[in-house]
Amino acid sequence: MTALASAALASPAAAVEAPVLVPLQGLEPVLPMDAPTVATGVPVPMPGAPTGFQKGIGALPDVTLPSVPLAGTLPGTVVDAPLPEVLRDSEPGRALVSSPHSEMKAATPGAIVGNPLEAPRGNGLGGLPELTKPSVGLLTPMLSGALDPQLGLAPTTH
Fold first, then answer.
1. Beta strands in 1-155 (DSSP E)
2. Whether 139 contacts 67, CB under 8 Å
3. Are 68 and 107 in contact (CB under 8 A)?
4. pTM, rounded to two decimals
5. Count of other CB atoms within 10 angstroms of residue 83
6. What is the largest CA-CA distance in the chain?
7. Are 148 and 101 in contact (CB under 8 A)?
8. In angstroms, what CA-CA distances link 156 with 35, 133, 140?
9. What φ, ψ does residue 5 adopt, rounded to 5°?
10. Which of 45, 46, 76, 128 is most exposed, with the fewest beta carbons within 10 Å of its own?
11. Cβ(108)–Cβ(68) under 8 Å?
12. pLDDT at residue number 138
């Protein structure tokens, strides 16, 4: 139980990611240059405690299906592609597209179902609750964060 609680409270900076190197060497026979390299990772989002539990006036809570927050870090991504030689005996360099680690927060959708009963008004069948139209609503999913991609040229290193 303690391990589950500590995993839920872990900071996104301690989130684990699986490194991924996309194999594009199979493209070299059909490309007139070396194949680009793509290095990234797969983020592992950490779920938090469900939000939205509220005590309703009646027997049912106002939020029936709470939304679950998720926090994680998108891994850094680097795309390194050689530029083709346009002029003879020129060294055009490499095109680099990179995106550093960035914090992301999300929340799953939730549902709200209003109580179909209301408190007795004192008039009527001896204090029995009265039926009302149930109200139903959805909590929208949420995603927030900022990406900072960079594009540049780098000289060819020998």
1. 17-22, 37-43, 46-47, 63-65, 69-74, 77-82, 94-99, 102-107, 110-113, 117-118, 130-131, 136-139, 142-145, 150-154
2. yes
3. yes
4. 0.54
5. 15
6. 98
7. no
8. 14, 70, 48
9. -65, -40
10. 128
11. yes
12. 86
pLDDT (tens digit per residue) in 13-51: 454 677 888 888 888 888 777 888 888 888 888 888 877
The residues, any chain, with a CB within 8 Å of residue 2's CB and separated by 6 or more, are none
- Residue position matching structure tokens 């469900």: 50
Residue listed under structure tokens 């900071």: 11
Give 92's DSSP letter: -
**Distance (Å, rounded) from C-alpha 103 to C-alpha 73?**
5
For residues 64 and 71, give the distance between their C-alpha atoms in angstroms, rounded to a whole number: 23
The rounded distance, in Å, linking the Cα atoms of 37 and 96 is 10
Taking alpha carbons only, the member of 75, 13, 53, 51 closest to residue 141 is 51
Residues in the chain: 158
